[in-house]
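Teaching note: in complex prediction, the entire set of molecules is handled at once rather than each chain in isolation. The prompt given to students was simply: 'Predict the structure of this complex.' The entities are:
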Amino acid sequence: MRCSRAKAIATLTVCTLLGLTLAGQHRGADADDKSDETTDDNASVVGVVKFDGERLKRKPLVLREKGGKLSDCHILHDNPLLDESRIVSAKGELANVFIYVKKGLKKKIYPIPKSPALLNQEKCMFRPRVQGIQVGQEFLMRNSDPMTHNVRSFARRNRAFNVAQPAKSPDRDRVFTRGEGAVKLQCDIHPWMKAYYFVMEHPYFAVTNEKGQFKINGLPTGEYTLVAWHEEYGEQKVEITVAATGSTDVGFTFEDKAK
Amino acid sequence: MRNLVSPLLSITALLIAIAVGVLHFTSDSGPNSASNSSTSQTAELYQPALEHDPPTPQPPESAIRDFDTFLDRLREASQNSVTSLVLHKDALVRAEQVFRESAGVPDNVPIEMHSPFFTVDPEAIFALYFDLPTLERGLGLFQQHCSQCHGPYGRGNGSATQRWYTGNFPRNFWYGKFKNRSTEYGTVPTDGDLYRTLTRGLYGSTMPPFRHLSAEDRWSLVEFIKSLAGFYDDYDETVVNRFDSDIGNWSAAPLEIGEEPTVTLESVTRGRILFIEQGCVKCHQSNKSKPVGLARWEGGFDSWLDEMNRPIEHSRDLTNQVFRSGAASSDLFRIISGGPTIGPMPSYLNIAEEKRWDLVHYVQSVFKPDYPQAPATADAQANPPKTGDDNGTGAPGGVGSAEK
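The expected output is the structure of the full assembly:
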């Protein structure tokens, strides 16, 4: 009985995956056929996100579990692990800012990326801390640590989930069906572990690097609302016009909310 | 003389009762002594009585029809002018302030994440109930029986929560998140799940059973509570209800609970190993010497919060047979599979069904004396958890303060 059920589930999964892949390819072809705008790969939106204010020193994280017990995680780190909620460079550039097009795109179905988005639990931190995932794209959660983690999502529009990942367990995967704003991920065993993701209905998004730089490629010409989001400093909007070629420069400057 | 007769009679009666009791006890403990002497013969003896729930009754047709009509009206109202369903900004600010003052949200915890749920105007929702007797009846019953804890609008901030000292706070129904479900993590419960919670109550918590209400009344309450699970979806700029299976993907068919395997020493031992491997010990344990010890962490930790960012005091103590949604095998299997959706407990749906049953057997063996007991030596078989913290530092409980 049980065996046959397992088989049935496996078959179903395989079929679903196949179906998804086929659907994805089909949609991809469709999108290519119907794209009437000239999508010039050279046209891009680039910019730097800055932080205006006192540069706070990154605090070392306290690696303790519930009850105050020292966590297993400290054996993985020789140096203290630093807080990643505000990473500002010496020049005042802000990392881990999520930039995406909010308004202005025509409704159409974009090809689903074939490579999965990966969330790695590495040395008791989530990597990357901020990322964008497309609707329909596979989202893999991997545990590279020798201890148990759990990944808990606070999704509102998609189904929320919470999975336990013991050491050496296989990657878990999810596929999101609806677009959604910043969703927090958290490990409840190691409370300092936090990450954020956006589920996007299009591929026009980017995350700033340590120099605060970002680049969004291939936007068709037009007028758009570009949004920049940071976990501590909130959200900012800017209206942009994208030309057929060349790069459009955009700048964001965040300030401390407390001010 | 006559005065002596009645005491004598009662003493005789008492003696007989004791004798019967002793006989009963000895016959009861028979399997126990057998279990100690031989483990091979005992497999059948450990088969638990059938503890599955009786099949949950279905809601009456009229209740289903009324709720569907409500959803139609909500969709229509949301499409035509969402503004009529959304609170005015001033009212929203006031609602959030009242909530913070009344519902135990700590001052340092941000409340912004709740805005989508506060934005919906409860009175505008109630206004959609006209001509729907089930929902109107539910509203009346709710004010009478539930609002003291769950608040007049079901936002989990009734007057009783101002001095709430009994552990977890009452649910905010606007989220559509419930612990006691037969469905997958992150989905809404079935009508039957809500009915079961209403009928049974939640053991060991403030939520009492409402068996004294008629079945019809309980179904009315179920439909009313479902109607509250609405929020303002700022992505689509609509007001949606989580129980609306046409929108979103929050509805799921109930998980099938198969036949429970026989309880054996092996299954309990496998359960004990899984309990360590799957990370259950991380929360349901306070003493390493017992994988299910006096099993709960308490206090001193700020990331265990419920759906309204109110503190969750501790994990469940698995040793005392008090479980919110019941201690029967099927109840434990359900909660291990689906997870409670609120709080830190994950869903274990991704491990094999047999393994989940092993976990159930192990957890039950802790409070059921007639179950075989897994040997502590089995713990060594659990893979890694390489802990750097107990290399001779003594009791884990004291490590925190000692290593600062």
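Point out the following to students. The interface with chain B takes residues 1-2, 64-72, 74-75, 146-148, 150, 152, 154-164, 166-168, 172, 177-181, 186, 188-189, 191 of chain A (CB under 8 Å). The longest helix of chain A spans residues 2-34.
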